[in-house]
Amino acid sequence: MAEVTLDKIVSLCKRRGFIFQSSEIYGGLNGAYDYGPLGVALKNNIRDMWWKEMTQLHDNIVGIDASILMNSTVWKASGHVSNFTDPMVDCKVCHARFRADQIDLNGPCPNCGNKDTFTAPRNFNLMFTTHIGPTQDDSSVVYLRPETAQGIYVNFKNVVQSCRMKVPFGIAQVGKSFRNEITTKNFIFRSCEFEQMEMQWFCKPGTDEKWFPYWREQRMKFYDKMGIRMDHLRWHQHGPDELAFYAKDAYDIQYLFPMGWQELEGVHSRTDYDLTQHQKFSGKDMTYLDPADNSRYIPYVVETSAGLTRNVLMALSDAYEEQQLEGGDSRVVLHFHPNIAPIMVAVLPLMKKDGLAEYASKVEHDLREDFTTDFDVSGAIGRRYRRQDEVGTPYCVTVDYDTLKDNTVTLRFRDSMEQKRIPVSEIVSEIRKANKEYKRV
Ligand code: ATP
After folding, report:
1. Which of 28, 49, 161, 166, CA to CA, is 20 to 30 A from 203?
2. Which residue's CA is the nearest one to ligand 1's atom 1?
3. By percentage, how much of the chain surpasses pLDDT 90?
4. 348 near 399, Cβ under 8 Å?
């Protein structure tokens, strides 16, 4: 089987309207990307699936949407102002900058090849700053949030009081985060502007021992539901050198990306560190009075923190396949699970003429209420199937001359390329059934 490379994914993304370089006509901007029509559909589908999983299908999880700009003290309390840094070195010859933990400091400069040219490592804060209000001094500094989690912690009391939530419960949030990443290679894997899907689970101290493995299991199951190949996912437990000083335990879910095993999501046992810090810095009481036994405590937190945009890259890499077909033909196919496919069904009239296009157009309009659809009349039917395969459309419906006689259509399945003849009136139920039973082949 042909190797899946990042270059192939990048090229498909541009060619078919998934992802473009930001401000491309001006030469682009490092670490920033724009999602095209298919990319935004894919990203929204993953986001919606996560949101449904966390808030609708789970007991006791509610959502919030906090603002990106927050009071700067939040980031002092969280430790980001003093600690959210990467060690950086500069090459004294070419002035290129690298993360000290990602290169061999005794080797040559990866940019210019000179040896012994690196400065001593210096800590570089990853937060973007800007100013709010008319003056630009230290007092008006605000940060673009580097994670969504703090928006959840600072709303802990609001949510408890307004929604009468009882511990254990969770707060979920999806949103943009920003980090001034120096090494932004590997496409959308590591960008300066990205999206996170985070859930903070508040529980009684001690019960975190039970919830931590529970959430690890839940999060891995989610990727199975998303149709990701499970042999491309694994756990990585943080060793003593990786573990944040306040964390009790931490695991990452890693995915086998085209460039190797890399972090996709973190599941972390954070103790009462975050709420305690906010209590200290804000002077507001963050304790919870447990009606079960009248005890008062600051809840412990188990966090699940996934990159949404990194999930998009995983979904694309996992789905991508170049297949050799019988007769010397070949195709690129994206095996998206129907839950996340940008287009569910494409309707294709065999010919434009003789009323076939009009008939097919009506079929497509009727399907819109139930599914995302596409309509394509141009080119040979085989080429139109290939185009849909390449963007991961699970089903094609073809309208031909027999359709005009007996109101039946051909339903074609992307993965197996099998076709079956069904009445027009059964398209929706056939697709729903196939979606329920979907297994990648
Ligand atoms: P890394 O070690 O890759 O820099 P991290 O451990 O700092 O990541 P967290 O702070 O735990 O990452 O963030 C949680 C999740 O957010 C990550 O698992 C990843 O999916 C996503 N994420 C973090 N930084 C970026 C980024 N720069 N671009 C895209 N996604 C990111």
Report:
1. 49
2. 263
3. 91
4. yes
Asked whether the whole model's pTM tops 0.70, one would answer yes
User: Whose CA is closest to atom 29 on ligand 1?
Assistant: 190
- Pocket of ligand 1, candidates 196, 198, 219: which has the most ligand atoms within 8 Å of its Cβ, to mutate? 196
Exposed/middle/buried for residue 53 (C-beta within 10 Å: 0-12, 13-18, 19+): buried
The whole-number pLDDT of residue 327 equals: 87
- Expressed in angstroms and rounded, the spacing between residue 211 Cα and the centre of ligand 1 is 22
How far is it, in rounded angstroms, from Cα 177 to Cα 192? 8
pLDDT per residue over 6-31, tens digit each? 999 999 999 999 999 999 999 999 99
Atom 14, ligand 1: residue with shortest CA distance: 305
What is the reported pLDDT for 426?
98
50-88, pLDDT tens digit by residue? 999 999 999 999 999 999 999 999 999 999 999 998 889
Longest distance between any two alpha carbons in the chain, whole Å? 79
Residue 1 pLDDT class (50, 70, 90 cuts): low
| Alpha-carbon dihedral 32, 38, 40, 44, rounded to 10 degrees | -140
pLDDT category of residue 101 using cuts at 50, 70 and 90: confident
Q: What is the distance in A from the centroid of ligand 1 to the CA of 307?
A: 6
